[in-house]
Write a structure and sequence with these properties.
- The chain is α+β, with helices and mostly antiparallel strands and 690 residues long.
- The chain folds into four domains: 351 residues, Anaerobic Ribonucleotide-triphosphate Reductase Large Chain, CATH 3.20.70.20; 213 residues, Anaerobic Ribonucleotide-triphosphate Reductase Large Chain (Alpha-Beta Barrel); 56 residues, no CATH class; 45 residues, no CATH class.
- Strands 1, 2, 3, 6, 7, 11, 14, 17 and 23 form a nine-stranded mixed β-sheet that branches. Strands 8-10-9 form a three-stranded antiparallel β-sheet. It has a three-stranded antiparallel β-sheet with strand order 21-20-25.
- It is globular.
- The two termini are 39 Å apart.
Amino acid sequence: MQPASWDIWDKKYRLKDKDGKAIDVTLEHTYIRIAHALAEVENPSKRDYWFQHFLWALQNGAIPAGRIVSNAGAKEYKPTSSTINCTVSGQIHDSMGGILSSLYESGMTLKAGCGIGYDFSSLRPRGAFVAGAGANTSGPLSFMDVFDAMCKTISSAGDRRGAQMATFDISHPDIVDFIRSKREDGRLRQFNLSCLISDDFIEAVKEDSDWLLVFPASPLELDNPATEIVYCPWPITNGQRLDADNNVACRVYHRIRARRLWDDIMTSTYDFAEPGFILIDKVNRMNNNWFCENIRATNPCGEQPLPPHGSCLLGSINLTRFVKNPFTSKAEFDWNTFSDIVKTFTRMLDNAIATHGLPWGEQASEILHKRRHGMGFLGLGSAITMLGMTYGDKSSVALTEEISRKIAIIGWRVGIKLGEEKGVAPIMDEMFTIDKAMLTKQPRLAEDGHKLGDSLPGRVLIARYGRYFEQFPEPLREAIAEKGARFTHHTSIAPTGTISLSLANNASAGIEPSFAHKYSRNVIQEGKKSKEKVDVLSYELLTYRDLVNPDADPDSDDEANHLPSYFVDANSISPTKHIDIQAAAQKWIDSSISKTINVPQDYPYDKFKKIYLYAHEKGLKGCTTFRFNPEVFQGVLVQDKDLEKTTYRFALDDGSTVEMQGNETVIYDGEEHTAANLYDALKEGYYGKL
């Protein structure tokens, strides 16, 4: 384990008492603690059996998500902690009481160590009249600032940085303010931001037509003949005027050319890496619970689209552990052991639901009713390299799809057996009455003879009429429809940044290629106001040195020139190949995928815009890009070559300036920094002026 990996495990995942004394003496003790905690859920006569199996899985590539690693079996030391990584807020109601209620929910959720996502487009736009207050509202962005401050306060007092996602409808009148919000230094830094992009908007962009910015009309607006009213789909239908198709009467605030709005999104994303891009129609169309959920938000990294109060725990399989004979002509993937890990890990994640520790009753009810979990993988890029493939080529795309397919098929087979043994997720046996909306979403219901007012159990609506299951073998679909399963969702690919670095010795994160094979990681250290630059190596480079080139000079910059051509990194892979890999996995992932497409600093803007249209064409549920922009922010992962060619200018109190290269070391306020990290800390307001 390289020093950076040990440091992350020690600071984030190693169990310690209140005095800082290590309870987990070694990483093996961490595994034993997790295996014991998850085996406690089993029948007492089987606990030792499953403890041994769970420990074997952990030792051979099963890596639960960070909250499980940190908190499973730790109740004696962390009585209010949770094993759940991600949640979504309940709907934020458009009233002061509703907003403050959601703020309280999110504060308690963050305190338990869970990330949380919200849809803020339920709040009326800036300047709209509030009858009860007799005044105009300050709008959603002003309330987001309150949530941001709350999160910053809680994370500064705890052991984990708070994580939040804010989503916003592309039709909301304040969408431009949302898109541009992070252009302000220090604003909304506790949030990731994503636009909810509809298929209709994409078509409007292609046709360069007008786009309406609307919000549900108030009674006063409906009675005003001067108000332009249109009926359109809207996620909230409580008390609004509806037409026969349940479309909501909305006031038209603005008309804007779709391409102008598109360019606003693209410009902000090009320069600031936000907002992200959630294709919300695709998300809802492919949702297994399509008949009873309307998803409007995701967890903070986007891999879990969730309904109000939805929660999900995560886990990833380290794919590097299944590469046999790496860097040789006999390199191959060990499918048999991989399949055994999937089987055992599925049971482990299901058991973790019993230890959820969620602070909110609605959150607990939601996860126990549907029993979502999200199994994915990490180390894909590293494994591809170790197999002698190039990330993004045809062979690597085929491998990605097959890995994802096996996780899905094997996992659902285990889900049926777990349902028979322990009981299916309650939603599987719940009866749902067919309504007009269901017939519109899935025409095959009518084709099969079902009509308004008929009732079907959830397991049938999921397995026979869920679009995700159309690709599954027919016997497996029918088995789920007949018997049900232990869960409604099984797969998800998380970013896995710190668990990849710590527990997998810096195998590539999630579905990504390695960021670089030698690079620096900006780490937030307790008590420091700027990030600390820590050098790390990719897992595949460490393995290559060990097996092929043990005499390599670790300090030589010439090593990269002698690596095989398939040693690519995130910045050298074309955006379309990134998307091809993501699309291959997405076919078999029933939740979503957190992925970042790295583009070079000098990547042409016109080509950049096409990335997002290609993502829509390939059927992705979302898309995120990152282009290094030193004038805006300093990312978590950086390459020295970027810092070396970037000049930072610091203004001193006497009016003079100092210029430094990004990788130069500077002492300020008694701390040592890189110039780039100090610049970032000053810009974000962690220090006063120089």
